[in-house]
Design a protein that fits this description.
Layout (H helix, E strand, L loop, with lengths): L34 E6 L9 H8 L5 H9 L3 E4 L17 E6 L3 H5 L9 E4 L3 E6 L16 H8 L20 E7 L2 H12 L4 E9 L6 E5 L2 E3 L7 E3 L10 E10 L2 E8 L6 H8 L23 E9 L6 E5 L4 H11 L7
Parallel strand pairs: 6-13
Antiparallel strand pairs: 1-3, 2-3, 4-5, 5-6, 7-12, 7-13, 8-11, 9-10, 11-12, 13-14
Length: 344
């Protein structure tokens, strides 16, 4: 392909910055200069689809990313067609293709983004924080910025040298409460080992629909990906790919068909408490994914990580932390249990 009149390096087509979907989320790092490539369609390319021409123009990028750029208006043709260009459009010799190589979402994910962190404890090797409901812990599809990982990278430059910026366990987006994060590689290694060996104590407060018949019980059932839905986890036999999981449950109070529970994890599978309680007919209040309905004023899953205890990964000191739930959860809890809280 031959070069056609090109825009200055780093330039952006008029109006491109007005597309909010391509702008960093509030507080996100600037994506930096955008490279622009231009070329004239040669005779040999006459009749080829536009997406194939784009691959020839930027072969180091995946076809899916180039398709994404096309859909977001980062591909223009001269002379301009009456309608926005589509991937299947057949090209004509002599047309000029202009492509803005906006970085992939993934490449922008691991960047520092200053954010307020509710730090409960911090030393040279680790920090313990109170994660608010609504904050995604780690970048993933649909959440490439504005995550806790981005905030940790801004909080401590050393986090960039650690796997997952020091994140050694996660909370679901809509679960609030305590998390421990490593600040050094020795601490990260030791904490991962301690979690795997079940030496980290994690207790949660939960509000559920239904009333368990026993005051105390355990759910010991393997968890795996729900074969009927990629968005859900489920109780799945070990032979079918499930992983061992156990949750101990204590009923604190019950009222008007809802119960206030304390849950202790012996493992940390994805959605473990949500899946285990739902499997017993006790879905979390407002947890639509597993059958819970909004109630008690809760519009997000009623789960809060309120106790965390472990040995310091470097000096061995016993550390224990508590964290009262946020306002929405506290009000809902009071409707079921009053001022009663777990005693252990």
């Amino acid at each position: 392909m031959q070069a056609c009149a090109a825009a200055p390096p780093g330039s952006v087509a008029p109006g491109a910055a007005d597309d909010a979907d391509d702008m960093p989320a509030p507080g996100a790092a600037d994506p930096g200069p955008v490279e622009t490539r231009t070329a004239v369609v040669e005779a040999a390319q006459h009749g080829q689809r536009l997406d194939k021409v784009l691959v020839a123009l930027a072969p180091e990028f995946s076809r899916s990313h180039l398709q994404h750029l096309l859909e977001r208006g980062h591909v223009t043709l001269e002379p301009a067609p009456a309608a926005p260009p589509a991937a299947a459009r057949r090209m004509r010799a002599g047309e000029c293709v202009r492509l803005e190589l906006v970085p992939t979402d993934e490449s922008r994910a691991f960047r520092p983004e200053p954010m307020a962190l509710a730090i409960v404890y911090e030393d040279e090797h680790l920090l313990v924080l109170d994660k608010p409901a609504g904050l995604v812990v780690h970048p993933a599809a649909g959440h490439w910025s504005g995550t806790l990982l981005n905030g940790l990278l801004a909080h401590d430059a050393r986090a960039a040298a650690l796997p997952r910026a020091g994140i050694v366990h996660r909370l679901d987006k809509d679960t609030s409460g305590l998390m421990v994060v490593a600040r050094t590689l020795p601490a990260a290694t030791a904490l991962v080992q301690a979690i795997a060996a079940r030496r980290v104590q994690r207790r949660y407060l939960a509000l559920v629909h239904g009333v368990p018949p026993q005051e105390r019980f355990s759910v010991d059932a393997p968890i795996g990906r729900d074969p009927r839905s990629r968005l859900r986890m489920a109780v799945v036999a070990l032979a079918a790919g499930g992983r061992a999981a156990r949750t101990d449950v204590q009923r604190i109070a019950a009222r008007d068909g809802c119960s206030a529970l304390q849950c202790a994890l012996h493992s940390g599978r994805t959605h473990q408490i949500r899946v285990h309680l739902a499997s017993r007919g006790l879905p979390l209040v407002a947890d639509a994914l597993y059958g819970g309905r909004p109630a008690l004023g809760m519009q997000r899953q009623a789960l809060h990580a309120w106790r965390l205890a472990f040995a310091h990964p470097v000096d061995g000191r016993a550390l224990a932390f508590g964290c009262l739930p946020p306002v929405d959860f506290a009000r809902a809890w009071a409707q079921v249990a009053g001022a009663t809280m777990p005693s252990e």
